[in-house]
Amino acid sequence: MFYLPEGAFPVQGTVGCVTANGAVTLDNISMKNAQMVYMVFHITSGSGHNIAYTPLVGIAVATCATALPNDVPIWYGDVSTTSTQLTRQTAAKAHTTAATASLTSYLIFQIDPASCGVYDCLGGTVANAAHADYLISCTYWIVPRYQSKVASMTANEYIID
Length: 161
Description:
Layout: E1 9-12, E2 18-19, E3 24-25, E4 29-30, E5 34-44, E6 51-58, E7 66-67, E8 72-78, E9 86-92, E10 95-97, E11 104-111, E12 121-126, E13 135-144, H1 148-151
Antiparallel strand pairs: 1-13, 2-13, 3-12, 4-12, 5-11, 5-13, 6-7, 6-10, 6-12, 8-9, 8-11
């Protein structure tokens, strides 16, 4: 079973729900003050498609273009059937949804900033779905490195580095 930790702080990776028709580049964030980051995708589609989701890291928020240095835990869950359970996937640096994927689902990458080496910024891409009805949204749920940061989040705490 997967749960987001208490005290996690949301930062948008997309401005609301966007179409993956033509691909999507996520907004980048700084992980300098993060203990853990959960990259959460909400996916809705008229039909399933093989779509690659790739987290990317960089040394500055403007330059997230490098694949993750290590495999990370991934969860996928179908939320349009009688089951809404998230299932642990094989740890990897990226994930491709199956063509039989649910019309509504969640995909979650758990990224430990300590395992990213010199890279302390995070972004990502979603491959071209070639279908206007393939919609995604991304939210980074950030567990602050310091407990005192939860109550004193500034507007740009994880946007700039």
